[in-house]
Every structure is written in structure tokens, then in C-alpha cells.
Amino acid sequence: MDISREILNVKNLSVRFKSKNGLVHTAVDDISLTLRDGDVTALVGESGSGKTTLARAVMGLVERAAGTVSLFGKDTSALNAEEFNELRRMCGYIPQDPYGAIPPGLSALDAVTEPAVIARRYARYARDERELRARLLLKELGLDDERILRSRAVGLSGGQRQRVEIARALMLSPKLLICDEPTSMQDVSTRGEIIEVLYKRVSEGMSMIFITHDLLLAGRAAKSILVMKDGRLCEYGSASDVLNRPKHEYTRALLDAVPRNKFI
User: Fold this and answer.
1) Tens digit of pLDDT for each residue in 102-149?
2) CA angle, corner 115, sides to 110 and 118, nearest 5?
């Protein structure tokens, strides 16, 4: 497949949900953004701002009420299910909740190799070669204790599960990675290591959407920042401009709430 340098193009995207009493809630309201090869954009906002819903709409996991999503130059609304799935195999998704994302009966090692088995990627390789790739990814993320690798997901801590989920998302070498709060359960030192692992892939051409409520972390992880509140776009610009010259009062309030000496 010919891959355009434009990895993702979202135009005027809106998502609405209907409550049990019939009321309509607009979770994402007329959002647009573009990513090209090697771009990293952070989606920033408080809980309920629409960040996760926007990411899920990009992946086709929730229905759009309006707008278009193009992946790798293809309008996803014009694709059949098989064609859309082919594009999604080129994407990685790290969900916000690592507790519900990993099959509980699988070991950490098997959870990382599973996407390659499902996608029939690396099919020409023997199981031990797939396992070696998974081990290298987990080691890069600080998990190389054999007891941890052989432990079922239900026996891992939240931070360990999160790192397993990151390795799982990287297993197929995605061209686009969507990370939803990927460092939320990590301590300060591990958080920095994870950012370095992700940026190594960015340096190799991967594009990334990094979702966080933390503006300073967004500034470390991303080249551009999109600030959302109540489903709407408040501010969109380079990380430097948003952090140093914020235009919207909500962005300024988010910055004021973070200690300036905070280590990110």
C-alpha cells in the first residue's frame, strides 16, 4: 500500500451520545487535526474533555456524528470493513485502562506476542523468534524478570500492566501510535524511560497522538499540543507556543495549576 506522508487528517469531527432519557451529549465538537510522518501531537484536557472519545473515533471504535477521518491518505468512511482493518493494522493503540486491556489469562509475554499471532505478522518466524522480539520490547520498558514475564496479567501491578500494554502496541511496529495516558501509573523515573522508548520509534518515522491531562508532560512528549474542554478545541499550536504563550484562559488555568518545578 502506498502510504502518504499525511498519516492522519481529521476534519470537523463530532461525536454525540444519547443518554437513557433521550438527551444528546456532544462529546467531541467540530475538532480538526493533521499528523504527518514523525509528528507527535498531544491531546490535553481534564477528564471528560473528549480526548479519549476523539482517539476512539479516529480508530473507528465509536461512531462519528459528523466530519471525516483519513488514515494514510484514505477516507475511512469510504472503506469496507476489510480495507479499514488493513489500515488499523498499521496503527497501535494504548488504552487508558490497562486493567481491562490485556486478556487476564495470558502471561505478560504471551500478551505481547498475541497481536502478531492475530495479525499473522511474523508468520514466517517460529514462535521462539516472536517471543524474542517480545522479550526485547519488554526489556526496553524495564521488564526482564522471568517471573514477571511468565506471570498472568491479573498478577501484575498497574504500572507493569501499562508497560506490557505499551510493548503489545509496539509489537507490530505501527506507523501511527495513539497513547491514552500511557504513563499515568508510572513513577517519575519510569515515566521518562517510557517517553524515551516512544521517541525512539518517532525518530524512526512513527507518528503519535499522546493523550494526557498534564500540560508539562505534553510539552515533553509532543511537538504540538491540542487543548480540549467540554469536547471543544480551546487551543492548537506548537508545544512551545502553547506552554509559553497560551492564548486561551483554560490553557492558562491548566498551566497555573501545575507547580513550575514539577519534574516531567
Assistant:
1) 888 889 999 999 888 877 655 555 677 888 999 999 999 999 999 989
2) 105
Residue with cell 507556543: 241
Rounded to an integer, what is the distance from CA 221 to the centroid of its chain? 12
Length of the chain: 264
Kindly give the pairing relationship between strand 40-44 and strand 224-229. parallel
Cβ-proximal residues to 170 (8 Å cutoff; 6+ apart), any chain: 92, 137, 177, 197, 201
Q: How far is CA 214 from CA 2, 198, 239, 256, 262, in A?
A: 36, 17, 13, 12, 11
DSSP 113-158: HHHHHHTTTTTTS-HHHHHHHHHHHHHHTT---HHHHTSBGGGS-H
Q: What is the DSSP string of 18-81?
A: E-TTS-EEEEEEEEEEEEETT-EEEEE--TTSSHHHHHHHHTTSS--SEEEEEETTEEGGGS-H
Task: Say how far apart CA 48 and CA 77 lie, in whole Å.
Answer: 26
Q: Which of 59-73, 151-165, 233-247 has the lowest mean pLDDT?
A: 151-165
